[in-house]
């Protein structure tokens, strides 16, 4: 077992499946206690049970301020502290500026942007008590360029990138590091929102010529969460097989 995170406590949102599940699994393998949260209670509970000791699940909507309060209280009451927050939960609703439904636009802003904002805000107090911490926000390559047909999603992912840098400046005096990770095309259920030809074109435009695996993203997050990244804050780590080049 790797042990770079021994004694640390992590909270992973949207951790019931996809990238979040791989992150929870990896942080647990690296020695951390993990609170997984998600809307998908059944999948989340099953994952927590499969991982075993020092992993819990709690149902949680990241766009809900009161729900965040309850989750942080639960983490501190079960594990005694919070060292690592991974703001991973996100939704993707394709739609261009001319035709996207305003409900979809608003929902993406609430989950992808407000959810990350609230997570960072609620993590500050327990991380101050712990003497510092590491926040990793999952943005996207869609937070580093434009994507026709996904204006609202792109806007929220650029917002995550900007909030990350601002939080890194605000929280550095508290020894809280804040970084963003920018996945390329990763093989999770989220890609089902695209027509197959869009994903195929994504692979063809990827110099490494494959979809990313959730574990590729989990490895980047584990590094940013660890003391090996102790001098890294406000950075954006692109994990896309070279797609953006
Ligand atoms: P998935 O859809 O596979 O998993 C996301 C999980 O988050 C789901 O269980 C989902 O539940 C949950 N979730 C959605 N809304 C909320 C909410 N309000 N509160 C709590 N949990 C919620 O997505 P991925 O694993 O692919 O994506 C994870 C992150 O990575 C997202 O932020 C995404 O934008 C980002 N990303 C993904 C890429 C990819 O190619 N897959 C590329 C770049 C970035 P439910 O299914 O019920 O909505």
TrEMBL record:
Q: Write out the similarity annotation.
A: Belongs to the short-chain dehydrogenases/reductases (SDR) family.
Keyword Oxidoreductase among UniProt keywords: yes
MF terms from GO for this chain are:
oxidoreductase activity
Source organism: Pseudofulvimonas gallinarii
- Classification via InterPro entries: NAD(P)-bd_dom_sf, Sc_DH/Rdtase_CS, SDR_fam
Lineage: superkingdom: Bacteria
Instruction: Please tell me whether the keyword Oxidoreductase is annotated for this protein.
Output: yes
UniProt keywords, alphabetically: Oxidoreductase
Name the record gives this protein:
3alpha(Or 20beta)-hydroxysteroid dehydrogenase
* Pfam families linked: adh_short_C2 (PF13561)
Output the SUPFAM superfamilies linked to this UniProt entry: NAD(P)-binding Rossmann-fold domains
């Amino acid at each position: 077992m790797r042990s770079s995170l021994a004694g640390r406590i992590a909270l992973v949102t949207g951790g019931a499946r996809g990238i979040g599940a791989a992150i929870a699994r990896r942080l647990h393998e690296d020695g951390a206690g993990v609170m997984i949260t998600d809307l998908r209670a059944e999948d989340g509970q099953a994952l927590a049970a499969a991982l075993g000791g020092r992993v819990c699940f709690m149902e949680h909507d990241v766009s809900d301020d009161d729900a965040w309060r309850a989750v942080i209280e639960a983490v501190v009451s079960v594990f005694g502290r919070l060292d690592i927050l991974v703001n991973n939960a996100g939704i993707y609703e394709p739609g261009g500026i001319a035709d996207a439904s305003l409900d979809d636009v608003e929902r993406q802003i609430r989950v992808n942007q407000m959810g990350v904002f609230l997570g960072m805000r609620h993590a500050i107090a327990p991380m101050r008590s712990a003497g510092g911490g590491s926040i990793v926000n999952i943005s996207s390559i869609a937070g580093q360029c434009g994507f026709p047909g996904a204006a609202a999603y792109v806007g929220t992912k650029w917002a995550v990138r900007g909030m990350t840098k601002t939080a890194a400046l605000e929280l550095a005096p508290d020894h809280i590091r804040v970084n963003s990770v920018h996945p390329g095309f990763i093989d999770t259920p989220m890609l089902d929102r695209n027509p197959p030809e869009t994903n195929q074109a994504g692979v063809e435009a990827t110099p490494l010529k494959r979809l990313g695996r959730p574990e590729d993203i989990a490895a980047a997050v584990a590094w940013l969460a660890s003391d090996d990244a102790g001098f890294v804050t406000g950075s954006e780590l692109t994990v896309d097989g070279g797609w953006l080049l």
